[in-house]
Design brief:
Elements lengths: L11 H8 L3 H8 L7 H14 L5 H8 L4 E6 L3 H6 L1 H16 L3 E6 L4 H11 L5 E5 L7 H8 L3 E4 L13 E5 L1 H14 L5 E5 L5 H13 L8 E3 L4 H14 L5 E4 L2 H13 L9 E6 L2 H4 L7 E4 L2 H20 L8 E3 L2 E3 L5
Parallel strand pairs: 1-2, 1-3, 3-4, 4-5, 5-11, 6-7, 6-8, 8-9, 9-10
Antiparallel strand pairs: 10-12
Length: 345
Protein backbone atom coordinates (compact mmCIF):
# COMPACT_ATOMS: atom_id res chain seq x y z
CA UNK A 1 0.00 0.00 0.00
CA UNK A 2 1.59 3.26 -1.12
CA UNK A 3 1.76 6.19 1.26
CA UNK A 4 2.45 9.87 0.51
CA UNK A 5 6.07 10.78 0.97
CA UNK A 6 6.98 12.97 3.95
CA UNK A 7 6.12 16.62 3.32
CA UNK A 8 3.98 15.86 0.26
CA UNK A 9 0.28 16.68 0.07
CA UNK A 10 -1.92 13.56 0.39
CA UNK A 11 -3.87 12.89 -2.80
CA UNK A 12 -7.34 11.53 -3.39
CA UNK A 13 -5.69 8.47 -4.94
CA UNK A 14 -3.87 7.86 -1.66
CA UNK A 15 -7.15 8.12 0.23
CA UNK A 16 -8.75 5.61 -2.14
CA UNK A 17 -5.83 3.21 -1.78
CA UNK A 18 -5.84 3.47 2.03
CA UNK A 19 -9.61 2.86 2.13
CA UNK A 20 -9.50 0.05 -0.46
CA UNK A 21 -12.03 1.72 -2.75
CA UNK A 22 -12.00 3.25 -6.21
CA UNK A 23 -11.03 6.87 -6.74
CA UNK A 24 -14.61 7.62 -7.84
CA UNK A 25 -16.02 6.24 -4.60
CA UNK A 26 -13.52 8.21 -2.52
CA UNK A 27 -14.36 11.36 -4.48
CA UNK A 28 -18.09 10.86 -3.93
CA UNK A 29 -17.65 10.54 -0.16
CA UNK A 30 -15.30 13.54 0.08
CA UNK A 31 -17.78 15.68 -1.89
CA UNK A 32 -20.63 14.65 0.40
CA UNK A 33 -22.47 12.80 -2.33
CA UNK A 34 -24.97 10.01 -1.78
CA UNK A 35 -24.97 6.46 -3.07
CA UNK A 36 -22.01 5.02 -1.11
CA UNK A 37 -22.69 2.24 1.41
CA UNK A 38 -22.01 3.40 4.94
CA UNK A 39 -19.21 0.86 5.72
CA UNK A 40 -17.27 2.04 2.65
CA UNK A 41 -17.98 5.69 3.45
CA UNK A 42 -16.61 5.12 6.98
CA UNK A 43 -13.40 3.64 5.51
CA UNK A 44 -12.95 6.69 3.29
CA UNK A 45 -13.56 9.11 6.16
CA UNK A 46 -11.03 7.25 8.32
CA UNK A 47 -8.48 7.37 5.49
CA UNK A 48 -9.06 11.12 5.08
CA UNK A 49 -8.43 11.65 8.79
CA UNK A 50 -5.40 9.36 8.98
CA UNK A 51 -3.72 10.89 5.94
CA UNK A 52 -4.72 14.47 6.69
CA UNK A 53 -6.20 14.79 3.21
CA UNK A 54 -7.49 18.28 2.29
CA UNK A 55 -9.38 18.64 -1.02
CA UNK A 56 -7.72 20.90 -3.56
CA UNK A 57 -10.54 23.36 -4.09
CA UNK A 58 -8.66 25.35 -6.74
CA UNK A 59 -8.18 22.27 -8.89
CA UNK A 60 -11.72 21.10 -8.25
CA UNK A 61 -13.19 24.46 -9.26
CA UNK A 62 -11.45 24.24 -12.66
CA UNK A 63 -13.28 20.99 -13.30
CA UNK A 64 -16.64 21.72 -11.67
CA UNK A 65 -16.71 25.50 -12.25
CA UNK A 66 -17.81 25.78 -8.66
CA UNK A 67 -16.21 27.92 -5.94
CA UNK A 68 -17.38 25.74 -3.05
CA UNK A 69 -18.89 28.77 -1.28
CA UNK A 70 -22.41 30.10 -0.73
CA UNK A 71 -23.43 33.62 0.28
CA UNK A 72 -25.87 34.07 3.16
CA UNK A 73 -27.59 37.46 2.99
CA UNK A 74 -29.73 38.70 5.88
CA UNK A 75 -31.62 41.89 5.14
CA UNK A 76 -31.41 43.26 8.69
CA UNK A 77 -28.99 45.56 10.58
CA UNK A 78 -26.07 43.82 12.27
CA UNK A 79 -27.35 44.64 15.78
CA UNK A 80 -30.62 42.82 15.04
CA UNK A 81 -28.90 39.76 13.61
CA UNK A 82 -26.69 39.23 16.66
CA UNK A 83 -29.39 40.01 19.23
CA UNK A 84 -32.22 37.88 17.80
CA UNK A 85 -31.73 34.14 18.47
CA UNK A 86 -33.93 33.33 15.45
CA UNK A 87 -31.08 34.28 13.13
CA UNK A 88 -28.44 32.30 15.02
CA UNK A 89 -30.61 29.17 14.83
CA UNK A 90 -31.20 29.59 11.11
CA UNK A 91 -27.51 30.25 10.39
CA UNK A 92 -26.59 27.20 12.48
CA UNK A 93 -28.83 25.02 10.33
CA UNK A 94 -27.39 26.47 7.12
CA UNK A 95 -23.83 26.02 8.39
CA UNK A 96 -24.38 22.38 9.36
CA UNK A 97 -25.73 21.49 5.93
CA UNK A 98 -23.05 23.36 4.00
CA UNK A 99 -20.29 21.87 6.18
CA UNK A 100 -21.64 18.39 5.52
CA UNK A 101 -21.17 19.11 1.80
CA UNK A 102 -17.72 20.71 2.14
CA UNK A 103 -19.09 24.14 1.22
CA UNK A 104 -18.12 27.43 2.85
CA UNK A 105 -20.61 29.92 4.27
CA UNK A 106 -19.93 33.57 3.42
CA UNK A 107 -22.05 35.91 5.58
CA UNK A 108 -22.89 39.21 3.89
CA UNK A 109 -24.26 41.83 6.30
CA UNK A 110 -26.37 44.87 5.47
CA UNK A 111 -25.85 47.92 7.65
CA UNK A 112 -26.80 50.75 5.30
CA UNK A 113 -27.77 51.63 1.69
CA UNK A 114 -24.12 51.61 0.58
CA UNK A 115 -23.88 47.90 1.37
CA UNK A 116 -26.16 47.00 -1.52
CA UNK A 117 -23.54 48.11 -4.07
CA UNK A 118 -20.87 46.15 -2.24
CA UNK A 119 -23.00 42.99 -2.23
CA UNK A 120 -23.91 43.47 -5.90
CA UNK A 121 -20.21 43.67 -6.84
CA UNK A 122 -19.37 40.63 -4.75
CA UNK A 123 -22.11 38.46 -6.25
CA UNK A 124 -21.31 39.61 -9.80
CA UNK A 125 -17.65 38.78 -9.22
CA UNK A 126 -18.30 35.03 -9.18
CA UNK A 127 -16.99 34.50 -5.64
CA UNK A 128 -19.87 32.19 -4.66
CA UNK A 129 -21.95 29.52 -6.37
CA UNK A 130 -25.30 30.64 -5.03
CA UNK A 131 -27.08 32.65 -2.35
CA UNK A 132 -29.41 32.13 0.58
CA UNK A 133 -31.36 35.28 1.44
CA UNK A 134 -33.86 35.83 4.23
CA UNK A 135 -35.71 38.39 6.34
CA UNK A 136 -36.44 40.38 3.19
CA UNK A 137 -38.74 43.41 3.22
CA UNK A 138 -41.20 44.39 0.47
CA UNK A 139 -39.01 47.01 -1.24
CA UNK A 140 -35.69 45.30 -0.61
CA UNK A 141 -33.34 45.54 -3.65
CA UNK A 142 -31.58 42.25 -2.81
CA UNK A 143 -33.77 40.03 -5.07
CA UNK A 144 -33.14 42.31 -8.06
CA UNK A 145 -29.40 42.33 -7.30
CA UNK A 146 -29.38 38.54 -7.16
CA UNK A 147 -31.37 38.33 -10.40
CA UNK A 148 -28.92 40.61 -12.22
CA UNK A 149 -26.02 38.48 -11.01
CA UNK A 150 -27.73 35.36 -12.40
CA UNK A 151 -27.23 33.77 -9.00
CA UNK A 152 -29.03 30.52 -8.06
CA UNK A 153 -30.90 31.39 -4.87
CA UNK A 154 -33.18 29.98 -2.21
CA UNK A 155 -35.10 32.46 -0.06
CA UNK A 156 -35.98 32.07 3.58
CA UNK A 157 -39.62 33.11 3.75
CA UNK A 158 -42.12 33.63 0.99
CA UNK A 159 -40.85 36.46 -1.23
CA UNK A 160 -43.08 39.40 -2.08
CA UNK A 161 -43.17 41.94 -4.89
CA UNK A 162 -41.85 41.22 -8.42
CA UNK A 163 -39.64 38.38 -7.16
CA UNK A 164 -42.66 36.41 -6.02
CA UNK A 165 -44.04 36.30 -9.56
CA UNK A 166 -41.01 34.59 -11.06
CA UNK A 167 -41.53 30.89 -11.66
CA UNK A 168 -37.88 30.18 -10.91
CA UNK A 169 -38.03 31.42 -7.30
CA UNK A 170 -37.47 28.79 -4.61
CA UNK A 171 -38.05 29.38 -0.92
CA UNK A 172 -38.50 27.68 2.45
CA UNK A 173 -41.09 29.04 4.84
CA UNK A 174 -43.14 28.00 7.84
CA UNK A 175 -46.91 27.68 7.74
CA UNK A 176 -47.23 31.14 9.28
CA UNK A 177 -50.91 31.58 8.54
CA UNK A 178 -51.86 28.12 9.76
CA UNK A 179 -49.80 28.51 12.93
CA UNK A 180 -51.45 31.85 13.68
CA UNK A 181 -54.89 30.34 13.20
CA UNK A 182 -54.06 27.55 15.64
CA UNK A 183 -52.84 30.05 18.25
CA UNK A 184 -55.93 32.25 18.04
CA UNK A 185 -58.30 29.29 18.01
CA UNK A 186 -56.58 28.00 21.13
CA UNK A 187 -57.04 31.34 22.89
CA UNK A 188 -60.66 31.48 21.78
CA UNK A 189 -61.16 27.94 23.06
CA UNK A 190 -59.99 29.09 26.48
CA UNK A 191 -62.96 31.43 26.55
CA UNK A 192 -61.02 34.60 25.74
CA UNK A 193 -63.15 37.14 23.91
CA UNK A 194 -60.92 40.22 23.53
CA UNK A 195 -57.90 38.74 21.75
CA UNK A 196 -55.28 41.26 20.66
CA UNK A 197 -52.53 40.77 18.10
CA UNK A 198 -49.05 42.28 18.07
CA UNK A 199 -48.04 41.97 14.42
CA UNK A 200 -44.53 41.97 13.06
CA UNK A 201 -43.44 44.57 10.47
CA UNK A 202 -46.08 44.47 7.75
CA UNK A 203 -43.54 44.85 4.95
CA UNK A 204 -42.56 41.21 5.58
CA UNK A 205 -44.65 38.28 4.37
CA UNK A 206 -44.27 36.30 7.60
CA UNK A 207 -45.89 39.10 9.58
CA UNK A 208 -48.62 39.56 6.95
CA UNK A 209 -49.39 35.83 6.93
CA UNK A 210 -49.63 35.70 10.74
CA UNK A 211 -51.94 38.71 10.77
CA UNK A 212 -54.06 37.04 8.09
CA UNK A 213 -54.24 33.89 10.24
CA UNK A 214 -55.44 35.98 13.18
CA UNK A 215 -58.11 37.57 10.98
CA UNK A 216 -59.16 34.17 9.60
CA UNK A 217 -60.34 33.24 13.11
CA UNK A 218 -61.61 36.71 14.07
CA UNK A 219 -62.90 38.22 10.79
CA UNK A 220 -65.09 40.71 12.67
CA UNK A 221 -62.49 41.57 15.30
CA UNK A 222 -61.96 45.07 16.64
CA UNK A 223 -59.18 46.80 14.60
CA UNK A 224 -58.13 48.56 17.82
CA UNK A 225 -56.91 45.16 19.08
CA UNK A 226 -54.12 45.08 16.46
CA UNK A 227 -50.79 46.87 16.91
CA UNK A 228 -47.65 46.62 14.78
CA UNK A 229 -44.23 45.80 16.19
CA UNK A 230 -40.83 45.07 14.66
CA UNK A 231 -40.06 41.49 15.83
CA UNK A 232 -38.04 42.90 18.78
CA UNK A 233 -38.73 42.79 22.53
CA UNK A 234 -38.74 46.59 22.71
CA UNK A 235 -41.32 46.91 19.94
CA UNK A 236 -43.47 44.26 21.63
CA UNK A 237 -43.41 46.28 24.84
CA UNK A 238 -44.41 49.48 23.03
CA UNK A 239 -47.21 47.71 21.16
CA UNK A 240 -48.52 46.14 24.38
CA UNK A 241 -48.62 49.53 26.12
CA UNK A 242 -50.50 50.94 23.13
CA UNK A 243 -53.01 48.09 23.19
CA UNK A 244 -53.66 48.44 26.93
CA UNK A 245 -54.31 52.12 26.51
CA UNK A 246 -56.76 51.54 23.66
CA UNK A 247 -58.35 48.32 24.91
CA UNK A 248 -57.91 47.90 28.67
CA UNK A 249 -60.46 45.06 28.66
CA UNK A 250 -58.33 42.78 26.44
CA UNK A 251 -57.97 39.28 27.90
CA UNK A 252 -55.51 37.60 25.49
CA UNK A 253 -52.61 38.48 23.20
CA UNK A 254 -51.17 36.63 20.23
CA UNK A 255 -47.73 38.09 19.52
CA UNK A 256 -46.13 37.64 16.10
CA UNK A 257 -42.91 36.24 17.60
CA UNK A 258 -41.45 35.23 20.96
CA UNK A 259 -39.33 38.35 21.42
CA UNK A 260 -42.36 40.62 21.04
CA UNK A 261 -44.26 38.34 23.42
CA UNK A 262 -41.50 38.70 26.01
CA UNK A 263 -41.72 42.50 25.74
CA UNK A 264 -45.50 42.32 26.04
CA UNK A 265 -45.22 40.14 29.13
CA UNK A 266 -42.99 42.71 30.81
CA UNK A 267 -45.50 45.52 30.18
CA UNK A 268 -48.46 43.42 31.35
CA UNK A 269 -46.63 42.82 34.62
CA UNK A 270 -45.84 46.52 34.96
CA UNK A 271 -49.56 47.29 34.55
CA UNK A 272 -50.51 44.77 37.22
CA UNK A 273 -52.07 42.29 34.77
CA UNK A 274 -51.41 38.67 35.68
CA UNK A 275 -50.55 36.09 33.02
CA UNK A 276 -52.36 33.84 32.26
CA UNK A 277 -55.18 34.52 34.77
CA UNK A 278 -56.15 37.96 33.47
CA UNK A 279 -54.40 37.94 30.11
CA UNK A 280 -53.40 34.78 28.19
CA UNK A 281 -50.31 35.18 26.00
CA UNK A 282 -49.07 33.19 23.00
CA UNK A 283 -45.92 33.83 20.94
CA UNK A 284 -44.51 32.39 17.71
CA UNK A 285 -41.18 30.63 16.90
CA UNK A 286 -40.43 28.58 20.06
CA UNK A 287 -36.94 30.01 20.51
CA UNK A 288 -35.65 28.15 23.56
CA UNK A 289 -33.56 31.02 24.93
CA UNK A 290 -36.73 33.15 25.09
CA UNK A 291 -39.66 30.87 25.91
CA UNK A 292 -38.06 29.04 28.83
CA UNK A 293 -36.65 32.16 30.49
CA UNK A 294 -39.91 34.15 30.67
CA UNK A 295 -42.01 33.99 33.82
CA UNK A 296 -44.29 32.20 33.22
CA UNK A 297 -42.79 30.06 30.41
CA UNK A 298 -44.28 31.06 27.09
CA UNK A 299 -46.93 29.16 25.17
CA UNK A 300 -45.93 29.54 21.53
CA UNK A 301 -46.24 28.29 17.96
CA UNK A 302 -43.20 26.15 17.16
CA UNK A 303 -41.44 26.26 13.82
CA UNK A 304 -38.27 24.30 13.07
CA UNK A 305 -35.93 27.25 12.54
CA UNK A 306 -32.68 25.31 12.37
CA UNK A 307 -34.32 22.69 10.17
CA UNK A 308 -35.47 25.40 7.77
CA UNK A 309 -31.89 26.64 7.52
CA UNK A 310 -30.67 23.16 6.67
CA UNK A 311 -33.45 22.74 4.13
CA UNK A 312 -32.62 26.07 2.44
CA UNK A 313 -29.01 25.00 2.03
CA UNK A 314 -30.01 21.52 0.85
CA UNK A 315 -32.36 22.90 -1.79
CA UNK A 316 -29.71 25.32 -3.05
CA UNK A 317 -27.02 22.63 -3.32
CA UNK A 318 -29.48 20.32 -5.03
CA UNK A 319 -30.43 23.14 -7.38
CA UNK A 320 -26.80 23.78 -8.29
CA UNK A 321 -26.41 20.14 -9.27
CA UNK A 322 -29.60 20.30 -11.32
CA UNK A 323 -28.43 23.48 -13.02
CA UNK A 324 -25.27 21.72 -14.17
CA UNK A 325 -27.46 18.93 -15.54
CA UNK A 326 -29.69 21.44 -17.33
CA UNK A 327 -32.74 20.82 -15.13
CA UNK A 328 -34.97 23.37 -13.41
CA UNK A 329 -34.70 24.73 -9.86
CA UNK A 330 -35.81 22.81 -6.75
CA UNK A 331 -39.32 23.25 -5.43
CA UNK A 332 -40.29 25.54 -2.58
CA UNK A 333 -41.28 24.05 0.77
CA UNK A 334 -43.71 25.09 3.50
CA UNK A 335 -42.81 23.48 6.84
CA UNK A 336 -45.45 22.68 9.49
CA UNK A 337 -45.98 24.50 12.78
CA UNK A 338 -47.20 23.18 16.15
CA UNK A 339 -48.66 24.91 19.18
CA UNK A 340 -46.56 24.23 22.28
CA UNK A 341 -48.57 24.77 25.45
CA UNK A 342 -46.78 26.18 28.47
CA UNK A 343 -47.87 28.34 31.39
CA UNK A 344 -48.64 31.69 29.73
CA UNK A 345 -51.91 30.49 28.18
Amino acid sequence: MSEPSPGSRPTLEAVATRAGVSRATASRVVRGGAGVREPLADKVRRAVEELGYVPNHAARSLVTRRTGAVAVIIAEPEIRIFSDPFFSQQIRGISKELTAHDTQLVLLLLEGPGDYDRIARYLAGGHVDGALAFSLHTDDPIPAIIQRAGMPTVYGGRPSGPTADRETVSYVDADNRGGAREAVRYLSGLGRRRIAHIAGPLDQTSAIDRLDGYRDVLPDGDPALIAEGAFTAESGALAMAELLERCPDLDAVFAGNDLMASGALRVLREHGRTVPDEVALVGFDDVDSVVTTTDPPLTTVQQDIEGQGRLMARLLLRGLDRERAGDGPPSSVITPTTLVRRASA
